[in-house]
Design a protein that fits this description.
By secondary structure, this protein is mainly beta. About 5% of the residues lie in helices and about 35% in strands. The protein is built from 1 helix and 5 strands, in the order ββαβββ. Strands 1, 2, 3, 4 and 5 form a 5-stranded antiparallel sheet that branches. The radius of gyration is 15 Å and the shape is globular.
Length: about 100
């Protein structure tokens, strides 16, 4: 099994901040000779409500969160992006609930 990468967006920079968005990559989905993105997405769930829950499920934090400001016509919103890794298949949130 190859490395998994989880990217979580939250409402704040604390470990207990609420998750508002997700992105993920799975090294097992990379197929030789095929462009990245044509191999399908991760087959595992990544629905942890906070960074702390992801850490509790075995994800390792790569660095402190990075702040991003998104500007809209109605105003702006700050979000923080967290990067996590795992070297094995992550367990679902049911196992630690």
């Amino acid at each position: 099994m190859k490395q998994k990468i989880l990217i979580m967006s939250t409402t704040g920079n604390r470990l207990r901040s609420e998750a508002v968005g997700w992105s993920a990559e799975d090294g097992d989905n990379i197929l030789p000779g095929r462009p990245i993105g044509c191999s399908g997405g991760p087959k595992w769930a990544y629905t942890w409500p906070t960074p702390m829950h992801a850490i509790g499920a075995g994800w390792r934090l790569l660095a402190p969160p990075t702040k991003y400001t998104y500007n809209y016509e109605e105003g702006s919103r700050d979000e923080w992006e967290w990067w996590f890794v795992r070297d094995d298949s992550p367990i679902g949130h049911e196992s630690w609930w």
